[in-house]
Amino acid sequence: MKIAVPVSGGKATDFRHCEQFEIMDIDPITGNVVGRTVETPPCTMQSQLSGWLLEQGTNVVIAGDMVPQTMSSLAASGIEVLLGAPAQGAEELVNLYLNAVPRESVNI
Length: 108
Description:
Nucleotidyltransferase, domain 5; six-stranded mixed beta sheet
């Protein structure tokens, strides 16, 4: 499982204002973060970011906010979208998500 968080200045931000994405690899057995990369997307157009995130293997996006069209595009690609994330570190938000999700949901 991979979880992507749009970040700016090292903190989670709105999808349209991000500079980079922190992408966390999650171990399907333990539900722990086992890998982490920081990626700069090749484009800034939100409509193209959905495809790029899918290419990265993303299953979940945790963001402050995003336009409805982007949310629909991500959902149509099978990517779960969680909005309303505060401006915190990506790993902290991912851990909050993982602690709130039943373990069997993490095993995908």
